[in-house]
P-type Ca(2+) transporter (Parasponia andersonii), 1058 residues
Amino acid sequence: MGKGGQDHGAESLNQEEVFPAWSKDVRECEEKFEVSQESGVSSDEVERRRERYGWNELEKHEGQSIWKLILDQFNDTLVRILLVAAVVSFVLAWYDGDEGGEMEITAFVEPLVIFLILIVNAVVGIWQESNAEKALEALKEIQSEQATVIRDGKRVPNLPAKELVPGDIVELRVGDKVPADMRVLRLISSTVRVEQGSLTGESEAVSKTVKVVPENSDIQGKKCMVFAGTTVVNGHCICMVTQTGMNSEIGKVHSQIHEASQNEEDTPLKKKLNEFGEVLTLIIGVICALVWLINVKYFLTWEYVDGWPRNFKFSFEKCTYYFEIAVALAVAAIPEGLPAVITTCLALGTRKMAQKNALVRKLPSVETLGCTTVICSDKTGTLTTNQMAVSKLVAIGSRAGTLRAFNVDGTSYSPFDGKIQDWPAGKMDANLQMIAKIAALCNDSGVEQSGNHYVANGLPTEAALKVLVEKMGLPEGLNYGSTSDLDDALRCCQVWKNTESRIATLEFDRDRKSMGVIVNSRSERKSLLVKGAVENLLERSEFVRLVDGTIVPLDQNFKDLILESLHEMSTSALRCLGFAYKEDLPEFATYNGDEDHPAHELLLNPTNYPLIESQLIFVGMVGIRDPPRREVRQAIEDCRAAGIRVMVITGDNKNTAETICREIGVFGPYEDISSKSLTGKDFMEHCDQKNHLRQSGGLLFSRAEPRHKQEIVRLLKEDGEVVAMTGDGVNDAPALKLADIGVAMGIAGTEVAKEASDMVLADDNFSTIVAAVGEGRSIYNNMKAFIRYMISSNIGEVASIFLTAALGIPEGMIPVQLLWVNLVTDGPPATALGFNPPDRDIMKKPPRRSDDSLITAWILFRYLVIGLYVGIATVGVFIIWFTHGSFLGIDLSGDGHTLVTYSQLANWGQCHSWGGFSVSPFTAGSREFNFDSNPCDYFQSGKIKASTLSLSVLVAIEMFNSLNALSEDGSLVTMPPWVNPWLLLAMSVSFGLHFLILYVPFLAQVFGIVPLNLNEWLLVLIVAFPVIIIDEILKFVGRCTSGWRYSSASKTSKHKAE
């Protein structure tokens, strides 16, 4: 709302009881709002009412400030650990420089890279969240901008709609967008129909009336009300504004969208990563404390005097050194590359889904799709085509008392979609010809091609009749002639139009429930063609036309037969229309549309229409429906196989919805659905709503309003379900926003629904959702593979640093090297694991529980074993270089380095007290290292070759470990590396990057490493390869014990659920 609205609109909604204008007659409404139809509201009164009710516009909610959005990005455990590690390492780098050390760029690479990761992560997060409120903006586009109003007794055209107040008298015509919620006071035309499907979910335009309805009517039942944002498709009427702005039905939707957007939850994966981050924080804290306790003797010493510790000595330099080791531990334990790899994998997933017509608007929703347990689907336009089509044609038989029925194929407005079964092509009898003529000429709608599909112009039921005429074809004697150059879509209709011209229309009205047209043939012979409700036409019909064109009387038995056929079609949720005609029109024999003709007076008064449309000749009827999509039945079977429940929530009426649900397989053809099919109102009054929702199989909610949809989604989520909600209308937007996955329709969907959704279906097809769920499951499995891979790598790094600290040897790898491995070397293989082919039975398994562990106890044990081996291998190769001239027949003495004992290496801090300790110079690449001035420096700057070997072993092990991650329990024998060629390419890229920092002098200096020779590379591969053998043994054990582990896990989760 505007300023006035913000002050008073919400107040009036809460404090004033809503006046039920729909249950009061016109006079009571005028008295309540102190207004008359003729004079409207006075200018002075308008100002007073605006002060009270505010402007007729939707509220502008204040979005989150940019600072709040930035702070929210750091409300994540992993991010906070990274931030602390970055700050500490930056302070240490600065401190080292100030203490007289070299202020080298290497010291600052680590904190700067971590800060860069955090900044990129925050920018992406802010961009995604700032898009969240666009649904509210799109809702404002639906509002009418202008209205024609009666004020001070004068007609005011084009008044800005936001200036309307309750009590204003508004004139509505065809094509107008309704500017506020209004009570219909008077119909000027015989009928008024409003398209309100976007707000209520109804598949057809609704006829409006002046008559009162019960006070407890649902929104669809309020036939005497028109609602803001809907469109008048037929007629002309006078209305009175009853609710404006946020008090209108569309305003309530706006409030519900805003409320739902405040309740958005993290995706299941985000929750798991947060839990993992919290555990990681604890583990890092414990390990850092252990490292300090193990090494406390190096920076804090004391002597015992009389049994008590005295003479404490503290070395600040060594204390900061071990603090740096603790920081290295933090860097090693955090998978810094994980956010980037997850984003990349989800982005690749969105591309795959886009190829299947599912356009993902929010990246995390790709993963959430994989654990969807319930799909709440709208009916109209999702399960059905939202295109009315004739499915049955009933014509008169060859003799009195007989009928013929033809089934009609096709589910769209395309004249080429399907055909009429058992149709006498080109040999249409007189009875069928008359049906075709009436359907083509007693019709104000059309069909035209728009891109690759056909759309209706005008009323959908009439457009369906035009398509039927095309499928019927033309009888012998009639040909396309000069119509061949016209639009091919409606060529047959055009031929009928050319044979007879329309000279008058008897408009449809709710009393006689029919529409008639008077046509003039080329021979100047007049006839009346009528279509309408079958019962009403039969009452006014006295004859029938047989197959050969003979006219015979319509007796009561024949009427009963036709009514029986009508009942059968109606119970199949078909909307039935009858056809009749009359050729004896003495009053119109010379009428040609001239206003001066005496017959014209008869047409000006609609009360004459029933008399004109009497003594009719009945020819047949059709059953029309919004047909289900062909592929939906299979998609629902796939959902059942995948353990996903389907619930249909629609604004349409109960009978129609139940018939469609039986047809598409939500319910069985003979299943008792009395407990599974409720109206929205019945559900809200249900004594045990949660137990109703827990029923197995499909459920149906008809006549559902926006609040009903929201409540169903909320209850399902409370029960631990992961809910995907589909919808296309404004009425669906709040539930789309509230659901774990909101799915909007791309073709028929309103902008409001699209902006509130997480995913948009480019083809409006339910089966696309099912395909997207399968893709989501595959992506989640792949993400699980690379998350485990990266975490196992990090466990290895932690084990390496911990062992280094525990053994007291010099640190093998510095933080910047670990950061390089985590970010760059691990990145390509982890991303490539996102390309693992999906399991063939992926949609045959039940959905994973949203609280399933990302890492089970068995997987954690496996990776602790692997991690321990990584630690032993990296520390072992470091010790081997210092203590052995050769290993397993590989000569390592070629560089001339000095060998030391393990005892010397473990006590390197006491080097200055060793007498006669000397070290020979050694070469590495083109560099020579000399320690004549300080032999003890051999354990610091001289460890560069040993450190390079440790780093190379770590990189090689992680490349081999990525092969292990191809399958959780499958051996490399059954799932060889080439099933994912991208992984082999990624391994090549990672090795290439490692060679780059080894053999480019500048980069080698930045990372504190030197080039390796062939023998040293051989040692690296021999030490790294056993990781594959160890994991193959662990996988074999895993396969052998999988049944036992699965049953115990099921019991645990069942116990938790209970």
Q: What stands out?
A: Confidence is low (pLDDT under 50) at residues 1-15, 99-103, 1052-1058.
